[in-house]
Design a protein that fits this description.
This protein is an alpha+beta fold. The chain is built from 6 helices and 17 strands. It has a 15-stranded mixed β-sheet that branches. It has a two-stranded antiparallel ribbon with strand order 12-13.
Length: 312
């Protein structure tokens, strides 16, 4: 993914992560579907890249209406999630009792996030092409390409210089690559199933060797119509923020988006929630109680382990 443009994903997910204040359960349910061996013993890096991309590059979209977002200290949210390459994402979540609580998404031009209980009420948005110079970008401690890739769409760039594959216990392989981002060079470690070429773990380290983010995927399932494989459970951890989030995707449908695209990928309008452009140069980010200050709290205070904005 494009480095500066992908920065928005962490801000988008910050609206979701603001619901959390503690870590989620430490273990994922084990219900991985067996699959045929696609890698030979002691494969080359070229064989690993080809095998991983053979599956993941064919995942052009996915959708699920039975996802669950969970973490300690806040109620489990039921969610519908839709994704379409390269930038389209929609997550709608509710508690099952109180109606919609969360709407975050992205189309080809903008991204947005909305929390029903946010005070003051607002729907925050920003254009992809403006985010590189946006004041809100200061809230982003990492380049979060992997946050979308963690859901099962990660591809290996054959243009990068890789170290490995290095065998690991449990019939796994490790590969490393340095990626240049607007915040500097980062090292991405990818752990792969040595037989089936499934991406199991992704870890991003900054130039000082500090872990910035990681994801662990499990419950891999083969879609019966496309024969493609995606995980059904993902745990995303961001150590600088001291939180973890678990996403149970449920029965994901691959390459079969449902619904009207004109509605699915459109920024919503919630009466009583004015639209606030995060990249508006006229916003005063330090103004107490202002909408920009509220957006900043959704980033900096959460990253600092601060307050939760959701109360049941």
């Amino acid at each position: 993914m494009d480095g500066y443009r992908s920065c928005h994903w962490l801000l988008v997910l910050t609206g979701l992560l603001a619901l959390s204040g503690a870590s989620c359960p430490q273990y994922l349910t084990q219900y991985t579907t067996p699959g045929p061996r696609v890698l030979p013993p002691a494969p080359s890096i070229e064989q690993v890249i080809q095998a991983v991309n053979q599956n993941n590059s064919q995942i052009h979209s996915f959708t699920t209406n039975h996802a669950m977002l969970s973490g300690a200290g806040w109620p489990t949210l039921r969610a519908s999630i839709a994704f379409e390459r390269p930038w389209r994402l929609r997550v709608l979540a509710d508690t099952g009792l109180t109606g919609r609580e969360l709407d975050l998404g992205s189309n080809d031009q903008i991204f947005w996030f909305w929390l029903r209980r946010n005070q003051p009420p607002a729907l925050f948005y920003c254009g992809h092409d403006r985010f590189a110079t946006c004041p809100a970008r200061r809230m982003i401690p990492i380049e979060p390409d992997f946050l979308i890739e963690a859901l099962g769409t990660a591809e290996l760039d054959p243009g990068l210089a890789y170290q490995g594959p290095t065998p690991l216990p449990g019939d796994r392989l490790e590969i490393r690559a340095i990626r240049n981002t607007p915040s500097g060079a980062v090292t991405k470690i990818t752990i792969i199933d040595a037989a089936r070429a499934w991406v199991l773990e992704q870890h991003v380290y900054d130039a000082r060797g500090q872990l910035q983010a990681s994801s662990i995927a499990d419950g891999h399932r083969r879609d019966p119509l496309t024969n493609l494989v995606m995980p059904t459970a993902v745990r995303i951890n961001v150590p600088p923020a001291q939180f973890s989030l678990r996403v149970d995707l449920g029965n994901v449908q691959i390459n079969r988006l449902a619904g009207d695209p004109a509605v699915l990928w459109a920024m919503p309008n919630y009466p009583g929630y004015p639209a606030v452009d995060l990249c508006d140069p006229n916003l005063h980010w330090q103004q107490p109680g202002g909408p920009a200050a509220t957006a900043a709290r959704l980033g900096t205070r959460v990253w600092g382990g601060g307050e939760r904005t959701f109360r049941e």
